[in-house]
Amino acid sequence: MSYPFKEDFLWGGATAANQFEGGFNEGGKGLNLADVLPGGKARLKLLASPGFDFEIDEANYSYPNHEGIDFYHRYKEDIALFAEMGFKVFRMSIAWSRIFPNGDEIEPSEEGLAFYDRVFDELAKYNIEPLVTIAHYETPLHLIKAYGGWKNRQLIDFFDRYVETIFMRYKDKVTYWLTFNEINGATHMPLFGLGFSPSSEEARMQESFQGLHHQFVASARAVQKGHEIIPGSQIGCMLIYAPVYSYDSNPDNVMHTRREADLFNFFCGDVQVRGEYPYFIDRYFEENDIKIEVEEGDLETIKNGTVDFISFSYYMSRTDKKEKTQEEIGQGNLIGGVKNPFLKASDWGWEIDPVGLRISLNELYGRYRKPLMVVENGLGAYDEVEADGSINDDYRIDYLREHIKQMGEAVKDGVDLIGYTSWGCIDLVSASTGEYSKRYGFVYVDKHDDGSGTLERKKKKSFDWYKKVIESNGGQL
C-alpha cells in the first residue's frame, strides 16, 4: 500500500551535536551541559535529583559525550552515508559553546563558525537540506554556573546574540530552523532543557516555569529575527509529544488525563504556535503557587513571534489514572503513567505504540492547523554484529515501518505532514542514559559503553530498507 506523501516530502535522519559530534575541547569550543553529564545509569539519577554540581569527576565516571562518535572529524564520511540512503534533510544542532565558548562573549569564535560552514557545504554537495536545532540540551557551562541557566533572564540577551550570529553567518545555507529542543520536557528534566538543577524538589515547578517563560520570549525573538535576516526561512518549535490515554472510562480518570495532556502536550505549543498562554494554566499556577515574572512587552513579543511549523518527537504514548500505586507505574516509560496492557515495550521499557503517532498527528494538526514534521522517532535497542559482520535489525525495520504506515494514515486523514527524520540515523550516545549500547541508527558505530571500539561505521540491514523507503517516497515499506 502506498501513501500520498507530498512529492517534496523531507525524508531524513536526526542527531544532536552533544550526542555525536565529539571534539568537546577542540576548535575553541567551551564546555557545555552535556560535557559534565556522566555516562551510564548514574545519569538518570542526576537528571531527576536536585543539587547537581556540574563538575567533571573522571575518577568515578566516564563521559562518552566528550568523544561521541567523532562526527567532528568524520563528518564527510557520515554525510556521504546519509546521501547514499537518499536523505533529503538532515536534522542536526549547533553547539552554542562552539560559537560562544562561555555563552556571554561579545564576539563569536571564528573557528567554531567555520566548522559548521564546512558541514553545511558538505550537505549542500549532496543536496541535503539542513534542519538546524539552535538549542539542543547544550547550554554553555559558564551560563549555568555563573548565571543559573534559564532561570536568569539575562540568558535571553545572550541567546539573542547567538541567534543573530548564526542567522547572519548561515543565511544562505540554512532555511529550516528549530528554536528549543523538546521545550515542554523542561518541567520533567530542567537540567536538560533549562540548564539548571532545581534548588529543591519543592522549587522545581516555580523555577522551571520561570525558565520556560524566558525561553518563550527568546524563541519568539528568534522567529522574528530569522524572518528579518533570512527571507523565506521556516522556523519551528520542537515538542516531545505523547498522547495521554485514560486507563479506563471512569470520568475522574478521563478528566485527569485530559489535564495531564493539556499541561504536557499543549501548554508550550499554545504559547509558541498561538502566541499566548492557554486558558487552563491560570488555575494550575494558582493551585501550585507558581508566580512567574513577566516583564512589559514579553506577551507582545510572544504574540508576534509565533512559529511557522511544528516539529515533535514521538517515541511512546502514556496511559494514566488519577490514583495509582508505585507498582502500577510503567517502569522505564520516561514520561510516567501506568502500564498499558495492550502495548509491548522496548528493551528500555518504552511502550511501543504506532497508532499513537497517528493520534498525535491528528491532535496537533486539529488544534493548530500548522504544517507538522516528525523530527524524532526510532527504536533504541541492543544490536548484535554477526560473525559475517552483518547487523540484522529487523526489529528496528518493523518498528519504523509500522510508525511510517500510521503517518501515511494521518496524511490520508488530512494532516499536513512535511517531513520525517528518524532519530539517531547513525548510532550515538543516548541522552537519557549516556550509553552507546542503546542504539538507534541505520549505521552501526563500533563504540561501546566501556569506551572501547574503533569508531568504524557499518551499514545495518535497516540502511538499505530505509533507502528504499525514501526512493519510493514511502510507497515501499
Automatic annotation (TrEMBL):
GO terms for cellular component: cytosol. PROSITE patterns: GLYCOSYL_HYDROL_F1_2. The keyword Hydrolase applies. Signal peptide: none annotated. The keyword Hydrolase applies. SUPFAM superfamilies: (Trans)glycosidases (SSF51445). Transmembrane segments: none annotated. GO terms for biological process: carbohydrate catabolic process. Keywords: Glycosidase, Hydrolase. InterPro entries: GH, GH_1_N_CS, Glyco_hydro_1. Pfam families: Glyco_hydro_1 (PF00232). GO terms for molecular function: beta-glucosidase activity. PANTHER family: 6-PHOSPHO-BETA-GLUCOSIDASE ASCB-RELATED, GLYCOSYL HYDROLASE. Belongs to the glycosyl hydrolase 1 family. This is Glycosyl hydrolase. It comes from Halolactibacillus alkaliphilus.
